[in-house]
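The pair is quoted verbatim below.
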Amino acid sequence: MASSSDSPSKAGRALFWVVAVVVLLAVALSGAWFYLSSRLDGELTRAIEQVRARGTEIECPNREVFGFPFRIGFRCDAISVIRNDGRLGRASAGAVRTAAQIYRPNRLVGELDGPLLISGPSLPPLDIRWSLAQASATFWTEGLDRFSVVTDDPKIAMVQPAAGNEGLVDADHSELHARRRDGDLDIFTLMKGGKLVFPGAPDLPPLDASTDLTIDGAADWLSGAARGLTGRQLFAGRHVSLRSLLVEMASANAELSGDFSFDDEGRVSGKFNLAIADPKEIARLVTTVAPNLKDIASGIASALPMAGRQADGRTSIELRVKNGVVAVGIFPIGKLPSLR
Protein backbone atom coordinates (compact mmCIF):
# COMPACT_ATOMS: atom_id res chain seq x y z
CA MET A 1 0.00 0.00 0.00
CA ALA A 2 1.45 3.45 -1.03
CA SER A 3 2.15 5.86 1.81
CA SER A 4 -0.01 8.95 2.21
CA SER A 5 3.10 11.11 1.61
CA ASP A 6 2.99 10.14 -2.11
CA SER A 7 -0.20 12.22 -2.68
CA PRO A 8 1.37 15.68 -2.03
CA SER A 9 4.33 14.66 -4.17
CA LYS A 10 2.11 13.73 -7.12
CA ALA A 11 0.05 16.92 -6.69
CA GLY A 12 3.22 18.96 -6.67
CA ARG A 13 4.48 17.38 -9.86
CA ALA A 14 1.11 17.90 -11.56
CA LEU A 15 1.12 21.57 -10.52
CA PHE A 16 4.67 21.95 -11.81
CA TRP A 17 3.73 20.63 -15.24
CA VAL A 18 0.61 22.82 -15.39
CA VAL A 19 2.70 25.89 -14.61
CA ALA A 20 5.35 24.82 -17.09
CA VAL A 21 2.80 24.40 -19.89
CA VAL A 22 1.24 27.80 -19.09
CA VAL A 23 4.66 29.47 -19.14
CA LEU A 24 5.58 27.77 -22.43
CA LEU A 25 2.27 28.86 -24.01
CA ALA A 26 2.77 32.41 -22.79
CA VAL A 27 6.30 32.47 -24.19
CA ALA A 28 5.09 31.01 -27.50
CA LEU A 29 2.23 33.52 -27.70
CA SER A 30 4.54 36.41 -26.92
CA GLY A 31 7.05 35.22 -29.49
CA ALA A 32 4.33 34.83 -32.12
CA TRP A 33 2.95 38.30 -31.39
CA PHE A 34 6.31 40.03 -31.67
CA TYR A 35 7.12 38.07 -34.83
CA LEU A 36 3.79 39.02 -36.43
CA SER A 37 4.10 42.64 -35.29
CA SER A 38 7.52 42.84 -36.93
CA ARG A 39 6.12 41.29 -40.12
CA LEU A 40 3.15 43.70 -40.09
CA ASP A 41 5.35 46.75 -39.66
CA GLY A 42 7.66 45.53 -42.40
CA GLU A 43 4.78 44.83 -44.80
CA LEU A 44 3.30 48.29 -44.17
CA THR A 45 6.65 49.93 -44.89
CA ARG A 46 7.09 47.84 -48.03
CA ALA A 47 3.57 48.63 -49.26
CA ILE A 48 4.09 52.37 -48.77
CA GLU A 49 7.37 52.19 -50.68
CA GLN A 50 5.77 50.27 -53.54
CA VAL A 51 2.94 52.80 -53.80
CA ARG A 52 5.49 55.65 -53.72
CA ALA A 53 7.34 54.07 -56.63
CA ARG A 54 4.10 54.31 -58.65
CA GLY A 55 3.73 58.02 -57.92
CA THR A 56 1.56 58.07 -54.80
CA GLU A 57 2.68 59.29 -51.37
CA ILE A 58 1.08 57.84 -48.22
CA GLU A 59 1.68 59.57 -44.90
CA CYS A 60 0.77 57.90 -41.59
CA PRO A 61 2.51 59.88 -38.80
CA ASN A 62 3.36 58.24 -35.45
CA ARG A 63 2.51 54.80 -36.79
CA GLU A 64 2.77 52.00 -34.27
CA VAL A 65 1.82 48.35 -33.98
CA PHE A 66 -0.29 47.57 -30.91
CA GLY A 67 -2.62 45.01 -29.35
CA PHE A 68 -0.34 42.70 -27.32
CA PRO A 69 -1.06 39.92 -26.47
CA PHE A 70 -4.37 38.84 -28.09
CA ARG A 71 -4.80 41.40 -30.87
CA ILE A 72 -2.49 42.88 -33.43
CA GLY A 73 -2.97 46.00 -35.50
CA PHE A 74 -1.59 49.41 -36.29
CA ARG A 75 -2.65 52.98 -35.65
CA CYS A 76 -1.48 56.43 -36.58
CA ASP A 77 -2.52 59.99 -35.81
CA ALA A 78 -3.76 60.78 -39.32
CA ILE A 79 -3.56 59.47 -42.85
CA SER A 80 -3.14 61.16 -46.20
CA VAL A 81 -2.76 59.96 -49.79
CA ILE A 82 -1.26 62.24 -52.44
CA ARG A 83 -1.09 61.28 -56.12
CA ASN A 84 1.78 62.73 -58.16
CA ASP A 85 1.52 60.47 -61.20
CA GLY A 86 0.17 63.09 -63.58
CA ARG A 87 -3.35 62.95 -62.09
CA LEU A 88 -2.74 65.07 -59.02
CA GLY A 89 -5.19 64.35 -56.22
CA ARG A 90 -5.25 64.24 -52.47
CA ALA A 91 -7.22 62.52 -49.71
CA SER A 92 -6.68 63.03 -45.99
CA ALA A 93 -8.47 61.96 -42.82
CA GLY A 94 -8.00 61.74 -39.07
CA ALA A 95 -6.66 58.96 -36.92
CA VAL A 96 -6.84 55.37 -38.20
CA ARG A 97 -6.96 52.27 -36.02
CA THR A 98 -6.91 48.67 -37.24
CA ALA A 99 -6.75 45.36 -35.41
CA ALA A 100 -7.00 41.59 -35.93
CA GLN A 101 -7.31 38.77 -33.45
CA ILE A 102 -3.99 36.98 -33.01
CA TYR A 103 -5.70 33.65 -33.79
CA ARG A 104 -7.28 35.10 -36.97
CA PRO A 105 -4.77 37.53 -38.44
CA ASN A 106 -6.34 37.43 -41.93
CA ARG A 107 -9.45 39.36 -40.79
CA LEU A 108 -8.78 43.03 -40.16
CA VAL A 109 -11.20 45.55 -38.63
CA GLY A 110 -10.65 49.27 -38.41
CA GLU A 111 -12.02 52.70 -37.61
CA LEU A 112 -11.30 56.04 -39.24
CA ASP A 113 -11.83 59.48 -37.72
CA GLY A 114 -13.16 62.26 -39.91
CA PRO A 115 -13.27 64.47 -41.71
CA LEU A 116 -12.19 62.90 -44.98
CA LEU A 117 -11.06 65.62 -47.39
CA ILE A 118 -10.82 64.70 -51.08
CA SER A 119 -9.68 66.82 -54.00
CA GLY A 120 -8.68 66.00 -57.57
CA PRO A 121 -8.75 67.25 -61.16
CA SER A 122 -12.06 65.59 -62.04
CA LEU A 123 -14.15 66.47 -58.95
CA PRO A 124 -14.72 69.43 -56.64
CA PRO A 125 -13.03 69.39 -53.22
CA LEU A 126 -15.22 67.34 -50.89
CA ASP A 127 -15.53 67.23 -47.10
CA ILE A 128 -17.01 63.92 -45.87
CA ARG A 129 -17.91 63.48 -42.19
CA TRP A 130 -19.59 60.86 -40.00
CA SER A 131 -20.22 59.98 -36.36
CA LEU A 132 -18.79 56.48 -36.79
CA ALA A 133 -16.96 54.80 -39.69
CA GLN A 134 -15.94 51.15 -39.43
CA ALA A 135 -14.45 48.79 -41.99
CA SER A 136 -13.52 45.13 -42.10
CA ALA A 137 -11.46 43.14 -44.59
CA THR A 138 -10.71 39.44 -44.89
CA PHE A 139 -7.69 38.24 -46.85
CA TRP A 140 -7.14 34.81 -48.36
CA THR A 141 -4.80 33.17 -50.82
CA GLU A 142 -5.84 35.43 -53.74
CA GLY A 143 -5.67 38.64 -51.73
CA LEU A 144 -8.69 40.58 -50.48
CA ASP A 145 -11.63 38.18 -50.08
CA ARG A 146 -14.29 40.29 -48.35
CA PHE A 147 -14.64 43.99 -47.65
CA SER A 148 -17.22 46.05 -45.73
CA VAL A 149 -17.62 49.72 -44.83
CA VAL A 150 -20.35 50.94 -42.47
CA THR A 151 -20.95 54.61 -41.54
CA ASP A 152 -23.41 56.34 -39.24
CA ASP A 153 -24.59 59.88 -40.05
CA PRO A 154 -22.50 60.33 -43.22
CA LYS A 155 -22.50 63.86 -44.61
CA ILE A 156 -20.96 64.99 -47.91
CA ALA A 157 -20.22 68.67 -48.49
CA MET A 158 -18.37 70.67 -51.12
CA VAL A 159 -15.51 72.76 -49.77
CA GLN A 160 -16.00 76.49 -50.37
CA PRO A 161 -12.75 78.11 -49.15
CA ALA A 162 -14.21 81.62 -49.10
CA ALA A 163 -17.61 80.76 -47.64
CA GLY A 164 -17.32 77.51 -45.69
CA ASN A 165 -18.62 74.12 -46.74
CA GLU A 166 -21.77 73.67 -48.81
CA GLY A 167 -23.75 70.54 -47.92
CA LEU A 168 -24.61 68.15 -50.74
CA VAL A 169 -25.95 64.87 -49.29
CA ASP A 170 -26.78 63.71 -45.75
CA ALA A 171 -27.89 60.27 -44.58
CA ASP A 172 -28.63 58.40 -41.37
CA HIS A 173 -26.69 55.26 -42.25
CA SER A 174 -24.80 53.67 -45.15
CA GLU A 175 -23.20 50.30 -45.87
CA LEU A 176 -21.06 48.75 -48.60
CA HIS A 177 -20.24 45.03 -48.69
CA ALA A 178 -18.25 43.17 -51.36
CA ARG A 179 -17.03 39.57 -51.51
CA ARG A 180 -15.52 37.03 -53.85
CA ARG A 181 -17.75 34.12 -54.81
CA ASP A 182 -15.81 31.72 -56.99
CA GLY A 183 -14.64 34.05 -59.77
CA ASP A 184 -17.53 36.50 -59.39
CA LEU A 185 -18.02 39.61 -57.27
CA ASP A 186 -21.06 40.07 -55.00
CA ILE A 187 -21.92 43.64 -53.99
CA PHE A 188 -24.53 44.89 -51.52
CA THR A 189 -25.16 48.55 -50.68
CA LEU A 190 -27.58 50.21 -48.29
CA MET A 191 -28.51 53.80 -47.51
CA LYS A 192 -31.05 54.95 -44.93
CA GLY A 193 -32.50 58.44 -44.66
CA GLY A 194 -30.66 59.97 -47.62
CA LYS A 195 -31.38 63.66 -48.29
CA LEU A 196 -30.23 66.24 -50.84
CA VAL A 197 -29.25 69.37 -48.91
CA PHE A 198 -27.49 71.65 -51.41
CA PRO A 199 -28.98 75.10 -52.07
CA GLY A 200 -31.92 74.81 -54.42
CA ALA A 201 -32.17 71.02 -53.92
CA PRO A 202 -35.63 69.59 -54.68
CA ASP A 203 -37.83 69.12 -51.64
CA LEU A 204 -37.95 65.33 -51.45
CA PRO A 205 -38.79 62.94 -48.61
CA PRO A 206 -35.85 60.98 -47.10
CA LEU A 207 -34.63 58.19 -49.37
CA ASP A 208 -33.95 54.57 -48.42
CA ALA A 209 -32.12 52.58 -51.10
CA SER A 210 -30.38 49.23 -51.42
CA THR A 211 -28.62 47.29 -54.17
CA ASP A 212 -27.86 43.55 -54.37
CA LEU A 213 -26.01 42.29 -57.46
CA THR A 214 -23.34 39.96 -58.84
CA ILE A 215 -20.78 40.93 -61.49
CA ASP A 216 -19.53 37.89 -63.38
CA GLY A 217 -15.78 37.34 -63.51
CA ALA A 218 -14.99 40.43 -61.45
CA ALA A 219 -13.60 38.83 -58.28
CA ASP A 220 -10.11 40.12 -59.08
CA TRP A 221 -11.37 43.71 -58.77
CA LEU A 222 -10.84 43.22 -55.02
CA SER A 223 -7.15 42.60 -55.73
CA GLY A 224 -6.75 45.84 -57.67
CA ALA A 225 -7.54 44.67 -61.21
CA ALA A 226 -10.05 47.53 -61.61
CA ARG A 227 -7.52 50.22 -60.77
CA GLY A 228 -7.29 52.98 -63.38
CA LEU A 229 -9.98 51.57 -65.71
CA THR A 230 -13.06 53.46 -66.88
CA GLY A 231 -16.58 52.16 -66.40
CA ARG A 232 -16.75 51.21 -70.07
CA GLN A 233 -13.48 49.25 -69.84
CA LEU A 234 -14.57 47.48 -66.66
CA PHE A 235 -17.99 46.33 -67.90
CA ALA A 236 -17.42 45.71 -71.62
CA GLY A 237 -18.75 42.21 -72.39
CA ARG A 238 -19.46 41.54 -68.72
CA HIS A 239 -22.73 40.01 -67.42
CA VAL A 240 -24.44 41.42 -64.33
CA SER A 241 -27.19 39.78 -62.26
CA LEU A 242 -29.25 42.39 -60.43
CA ARG A 243 -31.25 40.69 -57.69
CA SER A 244 -32.68 43.93 -56.35
CA LEU A 245 -32.37 47.68 -56.71
CA LEU A 246 -34.88 49.04 -54.21
CA VAL A 247 -35.73 52.72 -53.74
CA GLU A 248 -38.24 53.92 -51.14
CA MET A 249 -39.51 57.45 -50.51
CA ALA A 250 -42.46 57.85 -48.15
CA SER A 251 -45.34 55.78 -49.64
CA ALA A 252 -43.67 55.44 -53.05
CA ASN A 253 -41.22 52.66 -53.83
CA ALA A 254 -39.75 50.94 -56.85
CA GLU A 255 -37.73 47.73 -57.19
CA LEU A 256 -35.79 46.69 -60.28
CA SER A 257 -34.32 43.24 -60.96
CA GLY A 258 -32.91 41.46 -63.99
CA ASP A 259 -29.89 40.28 -65.97
CA PHE A 260 -27.96 42.56 -68.29
CA SER A 261 -24.60 43.18 -69.96
CA PHE A 262 -22.69 45.94 -71.73
CA ASP A 263 -21.14 46.04 -75.19
CA ASP A 264 -17.77 47.58 -76.08
CA GLU A 265 -19.41 50.98 -76.52
CA GLY A 266 -20.87 50.96 -73.01
CA ARG A 267 -24.46 50.32 -74.13
CA VAL A 268 -26.60 48.12 -71.90
CA SER A 269 -28.81 45.25 -73.06
CA GLY A 270 -30.96 43.02 -70.88
CA LYS A 271 -34.33 42.02 -69.51
CA PHE A 272 -35.74 43.56 -66.33
CA ASN A 273 -38.73 43.40 -64.02
CA LEU A 274 -39.84 46.67 -62.44
CA ALA A 275 -42.31 46.69 -59.52
CA ILE A 276 -43.70 50.08 -58.45
CA ALA A 277 -46.03 51.39 -55.76
CA ASP A 278 -47.46 54.84 -56.62
CA PRO A 279 -45.96 55.03 -60.13
CA LYS A 280 -46.93 58.67 -60.76
CA GLU A 281 -45.07 59.78 -57.64
CA ILE A 282 -42.05 57.68 -58.61
CA ALA A 283 -42.07 59.28 -62.09
CA ARG A 284 -42.20 62.73 -60.50
CA LEU A 285 -39.33 61.94 -58.13
CA VAL A 286 -37.16 60.46 -60.90
CA THR A 287 -37.79 63.45 -63.15
CA THR A 288 -36.93 65.82 -60.31
CA VAL A 289 -33.63 64.13 -59.49
CA ALA A 290 -32.59 63.04 -63.02
CA PRO A 291 -34.29 65.17 -65.71
CA ASN A 292 -32.49 63.22 -68.46
CA LEU A 293 -34.60 60.18 -67.49
CA LYS A 294 -37.89 62.07 -67.75
CA ASP A 295 -39.05 60.32 -70.94
CA ILE A 296 -38.36 56.84 -69.55
CA ALA A 297 -40.05 57.60 -66.21
CA SER A 298 -43.12 59.08 -67.91
CA GLY A 299 -43.30 56.22 -70.42
CA ILE A 300 -43.23 53.59 -67.70
CA ALA A 301 -45.88 55.41 -65.64
CA SER A 302 -48.13 55.56 -68.73
CA ALA A 303 -47.58 51.91 -69.68
CA LEU A 304 -48.16 50.45 -66.22
CA PRO A 305 -52.02 50.62 -66.26
CA MET A 306 -52.11 48.78 -69.60
CA ALA A 307 -49.19 46.35 -69.46
CA GLY A 308 -48.59 45.95 -65.72
CA ARG A 309 -49.77 43.26 -63.35
CA GLN A 310 -50.73 43.66 -59.70
CA ALA A 311 -48.92 41.80 -56.89
CA ASP A 312 -48.39 42.61 -53.20
CA GLY A 313 -49.70 46.15 -53.57
CA ARG A 314 -47.36 47.01 -56.44
CA THR A 315 -47.66 47.04 -60.21
CA SER A 316 -45.00 45.07 -62.10
CA ILE A 317 -43.93 45.51 -65.70
CA GLU A 318 -41.35 43.81 -67.90
CA LEU A 319 -38.76 46.03 -69.57
CA ARG A 320 -36.43 45.05 -72.39
CA VAL A 321 -33.30 47.01 -73.17
CA LYS A 322 -31.27 46.62 -76.35
CA ASN A 323 -28.21 48.75 -77.03
CA GLY A 324 -29.46 51.23 -74.46
CA VAL A 325 -32.98 51.57 -75.87
CA VAL A 326 -35.69 50.79 -73.27
CA ALA A 327 -38.93 49.22 -74.50
CA VAL A 328 -42.20 47.95 -73.05
CA GLY A 329 -43.18 45.13 -75.34
CA ILE A 330 -42.47 46.41 -78.85
CA PHE A 331 -42.81 50.09 -77.91
CA PRO A 332 -39.58 52.03 -77.19
CA ILE A 333 -39.93 54.57 -74.38
CA GLY A 334 -36.46 56.08 -74.06
CA LYS A 335 -32.72 55.57 -74.12
CA LEU A 336 -30.24 55.02 -71.31
CA PRO A 337 -26.88 56.85 -71.37
CA SER A 338 -23.82 54.76 -72.29
CA LEU A 339 -20.98 54.11 -69.90
CA ARG A 340 -17.99 56.39 -70.27
